[in-house]
Amino acid sequence: MKYVVIDTPLHNIDGPAKVTGAAQYTFDITLPNMLYGKILRSPHPHAKILNIETSKAERLIGVKAVVTGKDTLGVKQGIWRRYKELCDEEILAREKVRYIGEPVAAVAAVDEDVAEEALSLIEVEYEPLPAVFDPMEAIKEGAPQIHEGVERNINVTRHIEWGDVDEGFKQADYIREDWFKVSGQAHVCMETHCAVASFGHDGKLTVWTSTQSPYYIQVLLAWTLGLKESDVRVISRYVGGGFGSKFELDSAQFCAALLSMKLRRPVKIVLTREEEFTATKRRTPMYYYVKTGVKKDGTFVAKECRVFTDGGAYTSMGATALYLTGFFQSFPYKWPSYRYDGYRVYTNTMPSSAMRGFGAPQATFVSEVQIDMIAEDLGIDPIEIRRKNGMTPNYEVPGQATIRSCGLHQCLDKIEEWIKSRGKLPPNRGIGIAAYGFMSGGIFNWFDTPYAFSAAMVKINIDGKVDLYVGAQDMGQGANTTLSMICAEELGVRLEDIRLHTADTAVAPVDLGAWGSRETLMAGNAVKMAAAEAKRQLLEFAAAKLGPNIVYDLDIKDRWVHLVARPERGLSYYEVVRDAIRGRDGQPIIGRGHYTPHRKGMISPAYSFGVQAVEAEVDPETGKITLLNVVTAHDCGQVINPLGVRGQLEGAIAMAAGYGFTEDLPMDNGKILNPNLVDYKILRATDMPETEVIEIPTYEPEGPFGAKEAGEGLTNPTAAALANAVYNAVGVRIKELPVTAEKVLRALKEKKEGKKKEG
Amino acid sequence: MKDFQYHKATTVQEALHFLSQYGAEGKIIAGGQSLLILMRQGLVAPEHVIDIKGVKELDYIRFDEKEGLFIGATTTHRSIEKSLLLREKYEVLVQMERKLATIQTRNWGTIGGNLCHADPAGDPAPVLIALGADLKLGKERGERKVSLEEFSVDYYETVLEEDEMLLEIQVPVPPARTATVYEKFTIIDSDMAIVSVAASITAGDDGGCKGARIVLGGAAPVPMRARKAEEMLVGEKLKDELLEEVGRAAAEESEPISDIHASEEYKRELIRVLTKRMVRRAWEKAIQR
Amino acid sequence: MEKLPLRITVNGQPYELCVKPKTLLVEVIRDHLGLTGTKRGCNSGACGACTVLVNGVSVKSCSVLALQVDGAEILTVEGLAQGEKLHPLQKAFLDEGAYQCGFCTPGMLMSAKALLDENPKPTREEIREGIHGNLCRCTGYNSIVRAIAAVAEGKYEEGE
Fold it and tell me: How many domains, in total, are found in chain C?
């Protein structure tokens, strides 16, 4: 299908604002009469709060207010609103702190220096409690109980099963059992968490904040502050990165709002980079046990896994990560039988929540490394074993999901081609692959919203310009442009005809936000529906003018309203708009759209797929890994925003490669040891290899114009492909993330010693 | 950051005078690429800051065929990196600077500031020690010379007295058939060294080793000479087994400590490998001279 | 602490200010002059989001005391475009989609400009080195490298 707008390399609509420095992020916002806030945080991983003395701080010149948990309604909030027992986080702790960095007080003052000084004058009396930092320790009998009533610190359990796994293992010719350990990861958004909250004398709260979901923040603020949702307005026009860290209520938002309510003045809180590392949320670390049974020709028969996740101090979004890791552990293959048991365990560490991939990168690492091991054990080519078992279009995961579009096999073919083209590699160099699949938005409504998951409104004005209202959030992934493109394509105009209104809960219709890769499919569908509705109204008027026979269709393409069968017969879009508005009592043309998945299985209405190859070199004397090439063949259905997709792919590789071998959050008794950008190592431009993207176009019936997600799934394969590449380069298998040079060298030494013993 | 009294010096004399008055509660700032970070994190809070960034007198790179190389303390890393003179005469300094921190840091930060910060994992010190550098220190009352090897005494601590500042780095003309090389081990490119090795080998006419200096970075509280390893080289011919032994010796005499980036065991292993490689590289280069 | 006079030119505009000694250059640019294009991303001089040009040379403005640049000419992202005419680098960034969230972009552009001013025909490797001091979490850098390469190849020459 040839399109006029979508799948063309159009400029991102926020580009001019971003490249000229005109874009105002929350970080940049100042308001008249504004104060600056700072947050006092617990130095203990687990302690009772006996008393907080704030008078000295209050008396410091320049300090306007100090708040503690006592000044709150004591609401235990959480995203999983449907399950009250999982709403366990107060944000400003009242009785107990459960991790180093948990907020206990907040100050508003005339500038940051005074606010900082005031923090040092607040006296908190703690009674330290025994703490536990490892999930395997936390589930033992007698371990310190972190949340009242939660036995053995088991916060959430999840079970996924189909087929008969035990029977499957009996049928299997070969069985492997392996333990893996996957690490956490910090999001490292360039813009830290921040908020400017302004509570007026009219009793209404406005919050400018860096968020992936203005709607969630609106609802959660209303809930925790005792306000009506509609009296809370959240604005987030430019967001400096999210990656999963910014769709929950955070300390900057809550404390700024609380202080502003007390003072009736705007309060701005910006988290420091150190707070960003220690007191926000992180990717969920996991202990993974996998037992897999296959036939000797490589056919998959049964898989069983048990996972213990390090949940940190609060539930957060960790329950979703627990579920998704269990589900995507089976992707992208056909498993006749499968069983997953997941346990999320509280520990006295920074809460684990959502991060790009949401449990799937962890699952993919485990699954794809083990599959390589099985392939080697059986003497089967790694591409072949994946081909043998890979999902195909219209496959049904029993009781879980129906895969409609699926370009996995074409992806395998392309990667196989590329690997062959590399020929024989020099010593200490290897290519590793990994296949993945990922969701395009989730079907779950644990947030318990009464609204459609995504909604949109299109308004056509007399000059032909189109106002598009969407609640979907652009955090850099390009949703603003992608959705505007969908609108323009459907309506038959150009991208520059669309004027976007978004990121403001007072203006835009509800959207659940940018997470779980939902915007292109879900908000896209809502936008397409709204645009189609507006178009229909225009075509009604055009029909009168053009007088088509009942069998002839009308459409609009590139501002030309025409008969589909005789495109030369038509009218200018602008003329039709004028007629239509006049003909409707001078009302602008309005189209509304919405989307909520119905009967789309247990996880997602559609799935993206891909296969990635990583070529790496290992220095056998130091273990140092150098990335040389990354080639990805991926299927995101119909590409809407090609510049956006390419950017998402390359960015995902950098982030996932970091997860694979350079990023880690080592802790000592609950204290993060590297909370800065010098010691926490993300890839720089000189570490990033050239990357090649191969688009495998498919058509997803559930997606707008056949589109699926393309931002998160791409984070799944790289750590696995890298680990497999290291094995193929120097023959050592690292089953613990990150795959560091030190681990590689140690494994090489052990291998050499093992050989010596044998020899 | 706590505020302070600011004193801008435009000449060496002014700087030394300020030092004599405020040195006790004061700090010198040149590029501030190390100092400002410490100050912003509250680790250091001087009452007075003496700004010598504008002391043009100390911004120079001079070479004399007999006397050697002279670099003023406020010369930026970037000047050293871009110096055609240095690329010709002391190429190892240019190569070292190219991988030091980031361009922005090199544009503003100074070689003097780096040496006075005395981070044992810093890049310039091991290289300059391998080159046999001395430092000219000055106070209002006079000057003194100190070998760079003896300049650092502990983590972030030097022999500088309160009213004293670094004026100049002096590097002798290398003996004939000498080559100096440097490499650091990092996980990502151009990062702070986990460990590093600078090796300087002087080859005899027969290709044997006439002189050796091996300096380890990130292996002790100060950049350290691997003297036992050096002794093993003098008078010997280039051989694989010798290099293996030298690497092992350097690893053994080093004193690295475990941190979040690498264990002590791994650091020793890296020192062993890097020493072996750097000695070989320097030796092969020296033989060709 | 007593404030001291500071005279700087920013994007061609001279300013006379009075600042406390501890004031950082980035604070003058963002807070005193309201030029919020330049960002701050860390407290350790590690991310490069605050990169500006001082007398043509790129520095991290969070790691420079304002008083040290008394008399200097500062260029920030706001000074790249000339009225409605975008700088070639800005055009290239738009064409390549060399930004996503955009927070690192101003600093990235300044480093790119400094690179091309000094080395108009860099290799790909040199381009990567040129932006090595600027962290980006969104793009994976490659689109930025392509954009800078396009300018270096003359794609945005006048009259084309």
Answer: 2
pLDDT tens for each residue of A503-536? 999 999 999 999 999 999 999 999 999 999 999 9
Q: How near does any CA of chain C get to the CA of A711, in Å?
A: 11
| Among A120, A273, A622, A743, the residue to mutate for chain B (most B Cβ within 10 A) | A622
Give residue-wise pLDDT tens across range C30-67.
999 999 999 999 988 999 999 999 999 999 999 999 99
Rounded to whole angstroms, the Cα distance separating A10 from A5 reads 8
User: Does the structure's ipTM exceed the value 0.90?
Assistant: yes
Instruction: Give the A:B interface size as CB pairs under 8 Å.
Output: 35
Residue A142 maps to a domain: no
What SS3 state is found at A220?
helix
Contact C102 A691 (CB under 8 A): no
Which residue in the set C21, C130, C133 is minimally distant from B5, CB to CB?
C21
The C-alpha atoms of residue A350 and residue A672 are separated, in whole angstroms, by 9
Strand A671-672 and strand A667-668: pairing?
A: antiparallel
Residues A333 and A211 in one domain: no
Predicted TM-score of the model (pTM): 0.97
Closest to A19 (Cβ–Cβ): which among C35, C94, C140?
A: C94
A741 in reach of chain B (CB within 8 A): yes
* Mean pLDDT calculated for residue range A252-269: 98
For A432, other C-beta atoms within 10 Å of its C-beta total 25
Neighbours of B185 (CB within 10 A): 24
Q: Structural domain of residue C72, as residue ranges?
A: 4-79
What CATH number does the domain containing C66 carry? 3.10.20.30
Task: State whether residue B94 sits within 8 Å of chain C by CB.
Answer: no
Find the CATH number of the domain harbouring C100: 1.10.150.120
* Cα gap A633→A615, rounded to integer Å: 15
Residues of A in contact with C105 (CB under 8 A): 18-19, 21
Cβ C48 vs Cβ C105: under 8 Å:
no
Rounded CA-CA distance A293/A306 in Å is: 15
Closest CA–CA distance from residue B2 to any residue of chain A (Å): 9
Q: Does B157 touch chain A (CB under 8 A)?
A: no
- pLDDT at site C159: 53
Choose, out of B44, B103, B191, the residue to mutate when testing the contact with C (most C CBs < 10 Å).
B103
DSSP letter (8 states) at residue A296:
T
Tokens read off for B247: 């690497």
Name the token pair of A673: 């040891």
Task: Tell me the sheet residues that pair with A306.
Answer: A289, A341
